[in-house]
Amino acid sequence: MWAELRDEQPIFYDDIADLWLLTRYHDVAAVFADHDTYSASTYEQSTGRVLGPTLISRDDYGHVARRSIVAPDFVGKRLQRSLPMVRACAANLIDAFVRNGECELVAQFSSRLPVDVISALLGMEGDGDLFRQWVTEMIQGLGLDPEQRSLGKRAHAAFCAHIAPALQGVDDPARMDHIAKIARAEVDGERLSGDEITAFCGLLFIAGGETTDKAIANMWWNLWQQPELFHHVVEHPAAWDHAFSETMRRSPAVIHEDRFTTSDVEWYGQQVPCGARVRVSIGAANLDPTVFRDPLRFDPGRSDLHRGKELRSGASTDAGRSGHLGFGLGKHFCIGYELARAEAVIGSQLLVERCANLRPALDTMPRPQIQGNAFQAVPSFPLVFDQ
User: Fold this and answer.
1) Rounded-to-integer distance, Cα 15 and Cα 267, Å
2) Burial 145-174 (b: 16+ CB within 10 A, else e)
3) Residue-wise pLDDT tens digits, 162-208
4) Among 35, 72, 146, 279, which one has the highest count of C-beta atoms within 10 angstroms of its own C-beta?
5) What is the domain extent for residue 338?
């Protein structure tokens, strides 16, 4: 369907959902890059209804200012200091099943690791099970069902109550957890309010937990479709990094994002009015054959993909390689992109180190499926290994 849309209707009006769908790579990249014309205030109708106002729904200077407060710990040298924590969280999860000779990758590892890492970053090690329950209910509340929305709001209230004590004593210089650091930080002489801090923490779990979980499982599924690729990355641990990049292209966890137009625009002769919802299809764009050769083929070694650190400011490099769009582009580029990569790579490396001859438990494993409105993920991935 994505191929048909790219070829025949690159701008498609969905009269049921009342939105305009773009599927070509360069069109999707252009929307991401133009935050003046395509506003992310669409998030006010999803995450905003459960978490309250967050920086992802803002396009103004307030977004830039708040991002400069919360983002530094998730990139570069500051993130490097947290990598032992990522490894420790992965090791704790593996300890729980390593003697069993089997595990369920999604239920016992990929769905737990990101939540445990974020809990540790917030200074709340050991609270992962609580957070997992609340995050699941908050995500369910992002849809249109009134009962699910109420459940999500109750979960968020419980989450905020649990976080509240951590907002006290943040000026103690001995506290180096993420909550204390963002609470102390100032931009133009202003600090984040308590509500903004708790909303951002909730966003970390929703955006960082769910998407990284699905990216890890999708990566493993992709590799096992060509067992020689899996064995290659086991023998060459650095290759996990390229496998993650190719997974974010071939099977991104998030398949689309929505924006509102702030003025009338024209696409391929079609008039899109101000205030319209424009849906950019990340999944379709990443499979655009005008950008990636043989795009349906999973190839971590492909020469036309930028395989290293993600590109925030643009979709292409001067080396003839284009970046995947799995983390977006421009102002709203995913804050946790480096952390997500670290969790997927370090977690996978440790799994194959600790669990000898790790392999699928079934001859045919469930393939990635569309889940909900915007996700693509492997529902389960049972593994066995030598004790």
Assistant:
1) 17
2) eeebbebbbebbeebbebbeebbeebeeee
3) 989 998 998 998 898 888 888 888 777 778 788 888 888 888 887 77
4) 279
5) 2-386
